[in-house]
Amino acid sequence: MHYIFNCFLNTCRYGYQRGFYPCILMRSTSLLRAFSLAWLLLRLAGPTVAAAQPAATAASGPRPLGQLQQQFVDLRFGMFIHFNIPTYLNQDWPDPDASPALFNPKKLDANQWAKAAKLANMTYGCLTTKHHSGFCIWDTKSTDYSVMHSPYKQDVVRQFTDSFRDKGLKVMLYYSILDTHHKLRPNQITPAHIAMVKQQLTELLTNYGKIEALIIDGWNAPWSRISYDDVPFADIYTLVKSLQPDCLVMDLNGAKYLAEGLYYTDIKTYEMGASQRLAPGSKRIPSLACLPLNSA
Known about the structure:
27% of the residues lie in helices and 15% in strands. The protein is an alpha/beta fold and 296 residues long.
């Protein structure tokens, strides 16, 4: 089935103070149909979320992790947009050498995404900046395999962050460690690969304003086979926190660890499209759950 982009709607499951919020996720080729359903399900889930607390000033320093986790949970409902080379090949894992010429949207309108999210009463958006095949949709200086070397030649991450902030929505980014185009894969990782990851994350966390959360994928997963030693977890986590101390770091493969604990992540994640499920009655860990729209 052909679709413009994968759109994910996320709720948070958390039991510190605010109770348990159900997961609401689907994928669809029709934005209006998808967000009409999303709005209905959101209303069934509970009352409209209150406005998020203002960001801390530089003088006050980074906020405690527990406060950041609670503020994330209070956001409750958001959009996760998967828009990249796979969109034009209708594949989750396309040819890693697919030509950048394939990426040539004619009517890309990030304002439409933001408007749809706002109308659905969402509070944030997250964009896939680079998926496993390695194509970057921002103005990166780390590689020629990017949107700036496609016919489109426009920074999609910039459009996304500007449009969502203009609508009063929080901004998050997704990034894949696994990168098949650049041969960042098991048993082939070099210091140059790690330097590239650090450069790309530095660009994303330096040039696009405040990023509420960074969702990292393809890292220490059974299917990626790239360990936290191959690409050092401590180095990457420290880099993110040094650039944006209040940015939450989420490992999208965190569900493989014990349910009642946070391991290598600030927020527990459940990718329901990959059969990951929160255990019934589990309410004590700050969590995110997501599922493609038309899989619900």
